[in-house]
Amino acid sequence: MEAGHSRVVGSWHIPKGSNVTISFNHTIVAAKDKQESATFFTTLFGLPDAVPAGHFLAVALDNGVSLDFAEPPIEFQPQHYAFLVGEDDFDRIYGLIVEWGLDHWADPRQTLPGTINTNDGGRGVYFLDPSGHYLEIITRPYGSGR
């Protein structure tokens, strides 16, 4: 791109030097039982109880983000949700995963059961929520160990 030109994104023109601020606010998490899934999540992650928000049960995360649990009247495909957590939180969450007897894996393909990974100099583990979604906790962002 030449100096002084704007970027073209679809049919939008963003003038060079513009500051575009985008923040993630919420996502809907399909659940077989929204109360069970929200409670599993808040208990495991040590978060405040979910609060009703219309047809949803909203779980508040940092930075104003929420996971809004819903019970759609359709079959849904499992999704993947990854969470960056501190070392102490990892210890507590992983301790509950083991205590509760949850299946867990060091890898997303579930070929390394019952253990964690040490990718990027941190720790990570994959496990399932009550609705079959693939959850992951990591202590270092991907690529940070390079």
Kindly summarize this structure in a few lines.
With 146 residues, the chain is α+β, with helices and mostly antiparallel strands. The chain has 2 helices and 10 strands; from the N terminus they run E-E-E-H-E-E-E-E-H-E-E-E. Helices cover 17% and strands 28% of the residues.
Number of separate structural domains: 2
- Gyration radius, in Å: 19 Å
The SSE order reads EEEHEEEEHEEE
The total of beta strands comes to: 10
Which CATH class of the largest domain applies here? Alpha Beta
Please state the average pLDDT score. 92
Quick one: CATH superfamily of the largest domain?
A: 2,3-Dihydroxybiphenyl 1,2-Dioxygenase, domain 1
Q: What would CATH call the architecture of the largest domain?
A: Roll
Strand content: 25-35%
The portion of residues assigned to helices is 10-25%
Query: What's the helix count?
Result: 2
Plain-language structure description:
The chain has 146 residues and is of the alpha+beta class. It has two domains: 25-73, Signal recognition particle alu RNA binding heterodimer, srp9/1 (2-Layer Sandwich); 77-146, 2,3-Dihydroxybiphenyl 1,2-Dioxygenase, domain 1 (Roll). 17% of the residues lie in helices and 28% in strands. The protein has two helices and ten strands, in the order E-E-E-H-E-E-E-E-H-E-E-E. A four-stranded mixed beta sheet has the order 3-6-5-4, covered by helices on one side. A hairpin with a 5-residue loop joins strand 9 and strand 10 (134-138). The chain is globular and about 50 Å long. The two termini are 29 Å apart. The model has no long low-confidence stretch (mean pLDDT 92). This is VOC domain-containing protein. InterPro entries: Glyas_Bleomycin-R_OHBP_Dase, Glyas_Fos-R_dOase_dom, VOC_core. Pfam families: Glyoxalase. Residues 23-140 form the VOC domain.
